[in-house]
Amino acid sequence: MTQYYEHTQVGYSIIAALIIALLISVYYLTTASFNWNPIIGLIILGACLATFSTLKVLINEDVLEISFGLGIIRKSLSLNDLESYQIVKNPWYYGWGIHLTPHGWLYNVSGFYAVEIKMKTGKRYIIGTDVPTELGKAIQQSIERITRPTFEG
User: What values do phi and psi take at 26, rounded to 5?
Assistant: First the structure.
């Protein structure tokens, strides 16, 4: 399968915040009497670190795929169902992670810039990226490649 675009964005702010929280939990665990709360906190924080530290966007022949961290959380969008895209700047309060916004589902690990994708069904997805122009160009080329008629001789 041909791959047309791949980019992984690192969420340095998420990593820093989670590492600080992990260090606080380790400190509490080592200085206080035994308690399950810091152990459970360490497990949850470690899972969040492994899951939400990066966001990978991949475009192959017929699918745009978004995946977080280890790839456990992912979303695939058929390029045939893509209607349009636009580069957007999200307000600060949209934050990071995966959640519903007034403009569609947001997938983001860092920063404010994103590419908003509109599907033929009307659904919208917002993919955070530190290279919005490159991602937009790759999406445009994919739309053109998919909609371009092929001729057999």
Answer: -65, -45
CA distance 147 to 108: 28
pTM for this prediction:
0.86
Give the span between the Cα atoms of 66 and 10, in whole angstroms: 14
81-119 per-position pLDDT tens digit = 999 999 999 999 998 889 999 999 999 999 999 999 999
- Burial label for 57, CB within 10 Å (0-12, 13-18, 19+), is buried
CATH number of the domain located at residue range(s) 3-10+57-147 in this protein = 2.30.29.30
10 Å CB burial of residue 74 (0-12, 13-18, 19+) is: middle
When the pLDDT of each residue in the chain is averaged and rounded to a whole number, the result is 91
Q: Distance of CA 117 to CAs 1, 16, 86, 88, 102, Å?
A: 23, 29, 7, 10, 13
Dist. CA 149–CA 153, nearest whole Å: 13
According to DSSP, residue 149 is labeled -
Q: Which two tokens stand for residue 56?
A: 């990978």
Is residue 10 pLDDT above 90, yes or no?
yes
